[in-house]
Amino acid sequence: MNTLKIKVMRKPGCEDLPLPRYMSEAASGMDLYAAVDTSVLMERSEIKLIPTGIHIELPRGYEAQVRPRSGLALKHGLTLVNTPGTIDSDYRGEIGIILCNLGKDTFTVERGMRIAQLVIQPVTRAELIEVERLGESPRGIGGFGHTGH
């Protein structure tokens, strides 16, 4: 398993919060923690930006993806509006989580709560080449649901 060193900086006042970390030996995502100053109530269908209190410096050629936590999604209907959220290697601002409550009940975000996952991935950049015609394929132009599955 490869290890990549990522620089991380805490926002002042967030020294009490854990740094993102893997919760098992084979986990692909590190948990991110809520850096809210006071409890944040999220009503049904409400969207809020939840701070994490950290900034990261990714090496060029990598991105960080912010993804929902499956336990919060299943138990409370919490998800991310822009899942996965993308953090580019040249971004240096605080990581924020665009959290949405799709559940039946009001949800309370508490300081230090694990609210999302951070997955580090290599980036492949594409060069687009404009052509007059694309190659044929068995599927052709069939769109949504076209394959019957």
Question: Could you please describe the fold and organization of this structure?
Answer:
Helices cover 5% and strands 35% of the residues. It has one helix at residues 70-76; strands at 7-10, 21-22, 30-33, 40-42, 47-51, 54-57, 62-67, 78-80, 85-87, 96-101, 107-109, 114-122. The longest helix is centred in the middle third of the chain and has 7 residues, at 70-76. It is mainly beta. It has a domain at 20-122: Deoxyuridine 5'-Triphosphate Nucleotidohydrolase, Chain A (Distorted Sandwich). The model has no long low-confidence stretch (mean pLDDT 94).
Features:
149 residues, mainly beta, five-stranded antiparallel sheet, 1 helix, 12 strands, 35% strand
CATH superfamily descriptor of the domain at 20-122? Deoxyuridine triphosphatase (dUTPase)
Mean pLDDT: 94
CATH topology type of the domain at 20-122:
Deoxyuridine 5'-Triphosphate Nucleotidohydrolase, Chain A
What's the helix count? 1
Shape: globular
What is the C-level CATH assignment of the domain at 20-122? Mainly Beta
Strand order of the largest sheet: 2-3-12-7-9
Radius of gyration: 19 Å
Please give the number of β-strands: 12
Low-confidence stretches: none
Order of helices and strands: EEEEEEEHEEEEE
In percent, how helical is the residue content? Answer: under 10%
* CATH architecture field of the domain at 20-122: Distorted Sandwich
Class from secondary-structure proportions = mainly beta
**Residue fraction in strands:** 25-35%
Quaternary arrangement of the chains shown? single chain
For the sheet with most strands, the description reads: 5 strands, antiparallel
Give the termini distance in whole angstroms.
Answer: 34 Å
